[in-house]
Amino acid sequence: MSVVATLKALYPAWLESATNALAQGESTKRSLRQQLERFFELLVKAVETDDPAWLDSVVYLWVWSQTVSDLSSAKTTIVGVLQVLVDVTLRVAREHLTDAEALDMISALTPYWLHVLEYAANQEMRAQLDHATSELERVQRELERLDKSKSDFISVAAHELKTPLTLIEGYTAMLRDVLSTTDAALQMQVEPLLQGIARGSERTREIVDDLIDVSLLDNNMLKLAFQPLWLGQILRSLADELQPALRERRLSLKIHRFPGHDRLIFGDVVRLRQVFRNLLTNAIKYTPDGGRITIDGRLLPGFVEVRVSDTGIGIAPEDQQLIFDKFGRLGDPQTHSSGKIRFKGGGPGLGLAIAKGIVEAHGGSIWVESPGYDEEKCPGSTFHVLLPLREDEPDAEKESLFAKLAAYIKKGEQRS
Ligand code: ADP
Questions:
Q1: 341 CA distance to ligand 1 middle (Å)
Q2: Is residue 362 within 8 Å of residue 224, measured between CB atoms?
Q3: What is the pLDDT of residues 300-340, one digit of tens each?
Q4: Are 406 and 363 in contact (CB under 8 A)?
Q5: Atom number in ligand 1 closest to CA 349
Q6: 3-class DSSP state for residue 52?
Q7: Burial group, residue 23, by CB count within 10 angstroms (0-12, 13-18, 19+)
Q8: Residue 31 C-alpha to ligand 1 middle, in angstroms?
Q9: Which of 65, 188, 298, 333 is found 20 to 30 A from 15 (Cα to Cα)?
Q10: ∠ CA(290), CA(345), CA(318), 5° rounding?
Q11: Looking at residue 340, what is its pLDDT?
């Protein structure tokens, strides 16, 4: 008898045995039987034409529609189901054929089984990969949604806080006016309280303004007012502004006359002051009393680089990217004091995110270098700010070129 004729003769026993091995319950057996009938039909066709690819279509359907793995009580993967079918075929052949016939049939079928198992394994791997990819995409979408709602929340909260804050500031000023016209003793008593309220509302306003800046940056709505400026002048005026804090913390600030400090470039003066103010107040906050802050820089082709270094607690390598994320402050929020210039008096963790947004909006980059975090040894940190040497207001074409170059220089510098 030919292999095809033997196969056909074994069909009823094979179908019965395979259905019983794979399914329980009458209705599942009935549905599975239909699938197995189709499989057997194609197996015969494959042997007849000497082409195992006949089986691909049914296996493909099994893998991608999962009907068979759902029906099967024995195995959950199609490779598993096919292994059961191989076992069933061996068993049925042994029970119904002579040893020689069984051996003939098994060796004739082996290439078909190998082909179909390999095909099923490939397809299942692809299906798993597809599943994993779509799962990843789902998580990504979810993260984007969360980020969007966080940024919406920031924007709403900041605007909501602004109104009562304006009221507090207004009433404080009015109280001061009223008091100045009444008796001096009362004024003496109340003045410190008013100062306290004024300090509190000033700090709150700074936080609210930072929140608004973050939401502007998040929504790509930060508008820069480009005008000619000298970086040296900005840095020197900031040094004057920060003198009281530096004195209080006994810190020295040295600004070197680096190449480029007196070059006239185009940028947003107010926003660049904000960048360097954030870097300098951080240097003050994260450097113990008596430490040193140094500003230096250099000219690079098309750019000026400013470096703000301190002799502070430093930043661990794994945190050196994280700190530029919004709310990217390090350490336990409970241990953060809220003093603006106190040692380790961390704020809400927005300063560097805003600095990064502003520098990048200028077509520059910002990054930090530090040997690591150590409150005892104080290895220090150096923040680098790279800004394009613009000789006029930006135009769109130059913008993307500056952005690409800045990213390139930053990468090269971080590697060296
Ligand atoms: P914060 O309001 O917490 O100061 P920033 O965005 O300005 O927020 O800084 C984020 C975090 O980066 C800080 O909480 C601090 O842990 C770390 N950091 C920033 N500047 C320095 C510095 N000069 N030295 C050490 N750590 C710093």
A1: 12
A2: yes
A3: 999 999 999 999 999 999 999 999 988 766 665 554 445 56
A4: yes
A5: 8
A6: helix
A7: buried
A8: 64
A9: 65
A10: 95
A11: 66
